Amino acid sequence: MMETIQAIKYKDGQLEILDQLLLPESCTFIPIWNVEDAWAAIREMKVRGAPAIAIVGCLSLAVELRELAAPETKEELCRLVKEKLDHLVTSRPTAVNMQLAAEACVKLCTRLTDNTSVNVAEAKDDIVKHLEATLADDIADNRAIGEHGASDIMKKNATKDKLRIMTHCNTGSLATAGYGTALGVIRSLHTASKLDQVYCTETRPYNQGSRLTAFELVYEKIPATLVCDSMAAAAMKQFKIDAVIVGADRVAANGDTANKIGTYQLAVLAKSHDALFYVAAPFSSIDFQIPNGHSIPIEERPHSEMTHTGSIRTAAAGINCWNPGFDVTPAELITGGIITEKGVFKPDQLAPHQ
Amino acid sequence: MMETIQAIKYKDGQLEILDQLLLPESCTFIPIWNVEDAWAAIREMKVRGAPAIAIVGCLSLAVELRELAAPETKEELCRLVKEKLDHLVTSRPTAVNMQLAAEACVKLCTRLTDNTSVNVAEAKDDIVKHLEATLADDIADNRAIGEHGASDIMKKNATKDKLRIMTHCNTGSLATAGYGTALGVIRSLHTASKLDQVYCTETRPYNQGSRLTAFELVYEKIPATLVCDSMAAAAMKQFKIDAVIVGADRVAANGDTANKIGTYQLAVLAKSHDALFYVAAPFSSIDFQIPNGHSIPIEERPHSEMTHTGSIRTAAAGINCWNPGFDVTPAELITGGIITEKGVFKPDQLAPHQ
Fold first, then answer.
1. Residue A2 within a domain
2. Cα separation of B100 and A193, whole Å?
3. Which of residues 17-76 of B touch A (CB under 8 A)?
4. How far apart are CA B21 and CA B55, in angstroms?
């Protein structure tokens, strides 16, 4: 299988990320020396994508901890770790992965503190190992998502030789540790020779589709066509698209899904064009603490993302803008199901598999 | 009433148009000396909008005819006029206005040729006057469209104090001789103090909404918010939009409407969000020669419109694009009606008012 792009490079306490702001013009890796670097890179969207945000956050803490002389006590170590994690969680509000990763790490800290047979140096090593494991875990999850998703879509379209899939935003190697979620499913379909064409939306205003997804698709020679967000319905009608597959920044307990702005309308349009609508997300994107999508905080982004492309003004001076980064797709529109590393579930059937 | 922007200036054989490619950075008028200049300006989208295309085409021919020494015979004059008009019709394929204007002018030529009491110089003058009248006629039509549309929307929302309207692309002073079609209706609602807010879509890939409509709305201090095309459904839901009003490049006899790409999906989304969907268009945009939207030619535009903003590359090199300039909205989705200078009609009720 062809190597996918690797946007997060980590080895022995050295972390580098691909600066996605410079794509597609330039492929430049920048070093992340500490949690503060990671926080800034996430906020500025040099790295984005719910899984990738959590991984870069966790790895940046691993980098810091490796350099750190072990504190006097495990309590002090855990207080420090929690403080850093709390800060990382504030970098962007909508994706839940960093928050869930932080909660898991804090739980580990508590266990290690309670375990009298572990000393502070060993505790620090365990925390570092736990944080470092997020990278490999995510790739394994994504490959499982790809397999589960592709086989579900093939099963539901058994009479069709090849499938036409639409996707939104970037959910590929650049949004994850590698392989991708929704784009992982598309990769698996392509590997199985079942992909006719993937239609990727531009994904305004930040162009994650045209800059990042298109970059991955060209790189891997997957048959692909770029469309503007305004062309989604026309494309569904003209090309008879079989399924829409998107990622998730946070899935609520009932299956309501927050994802990149524009996802909700793709779900409405998919329904009216008889295309299945799937969300592909690891369980680390599912927030069982909130009952439904109404409680998901939606980040509002700067207006300049809409009014300028680089230094070029593309909107009239003085115009008011509305720039939510995400929207919520109600569970009932997720007609295909939610594709996870544990299988494909109906939106209301997630909890038993937690 | 506040003066609207004037994008087409014509007086005594002198024609100037606002170069819309330079908006919003710069307001620059360029002279149009002849039909060839007009053809190029239309093709390059220095002027766009179905009514404006026809007006600039007609006026450019008036400019040429005024300079021309009258030919020897009326037949020769008419042959020349027809040749020029045929060329103008080829500038862009989807809008029908230039074609209908050309047909009307050719009919006038035939009448003048058949009328033995008219000499060639008088015929030339009559043709010039006919062509010059398109400017004032269009403004009058647009003001009537504005009045009819606003009163219909107010009537259908009688219980609401102020209305929230969404529009797509640019259908204002910049797309017409002045005032506008869909934007004319919005202007009339604003004048009647019934407009709460207009949401204008960016209208990718050419950004007619963010560059042109936003420019007009800011200029006239109409309360407005710019949204990306991907935000339409989220905005309809969040702001409870009452109606979507768009223009038309060509309306078929059954009411199917070709308009800027993205219109079709707004109509689907309006239906699922209980917003009325209106098309605002003069009868000069209605093509009774074609029974339905299947026969409307859809222009495909260059991929560079999607891959670059000015010199900045916004899409990965090598990605395939689909860039239709227009799509067709089926008549049944035009739930509000078609707003014309003669009144607001159900899509299937246009023919009797022809």
1. no
2. 49
3. 23-25
4. 18
Residue A199: its chain B contacts at CB < 8 A? 322
For A182-199, b/e burial (b = at least 16 CB within 10 A) is bbbbbbbbbeeebbbbbb
Question: What value, to the nearest 5°, has the Cα angle with vertex B230 and ends A347 and A298?
Answer: 60
pLDDT tens figures, A136-195: 999 999 999 999 999 999 999 999 999 999 999 999 999 999 999 999 999 999 999 999
**Chain A residues closer than 8 Å to B261 by CB:** 228, 230-231, 234
Asked if A54 and A150 sit in the same domain, the reply is: no
Whether residue B237 and residue A264 make contact (CB cut-off 8 A), yes or no, is yes
- Indicate the number of domains in chain A: 2
Cα–Cα distances in angstroms (integers) from residue B161 to residues A40, A301, B151, B156, B188, in the given order: 46, 31, 13, 12, 15
Answer yes or no: do A201 and A317 share one domain: yes
Nearest to B277 by CA among B184, B153, B94, B132: B153
Q: Has residue A181 been placed in a domain?
A: yes
A316 in B contact zone (CB under 8 Å): yes
**Same domain, yes or no, for A14 and A152?**
no
User: Is residue A50 included in any domain, yes or no?
Assistant: yes
What is the reported pTM? 0.95
- Judge if the upstream peptide bond of residue A24 is cis by omega within 30 degrees of 0: yes
Can you tell me the ipTM of this complex?
0.94
Q: Which residue of A has its CA nearest to B308?
A: A309
How confident is the model over B14-35, as a mean pLDDT?
94
Residue B55 lies in a domain: yes
Interface contact A262-B204, CB threshold 8 A: no
Domain containing A172: what range?
Answer: 146-349
Q: How far is CA A187 from CA A31, A213, A222, in A?
A: 29, 12, 8
Interface contact A316-B218, CB threshold 8 A: yes
For residue B192, give the amino acid letter: A
**Portion 83-122 of A in contact with B at CB < 8 A:** none
Token pair for residue A303? 């207006």
Tell me: do B167 and B277 sit in the same domain. Answer: yes
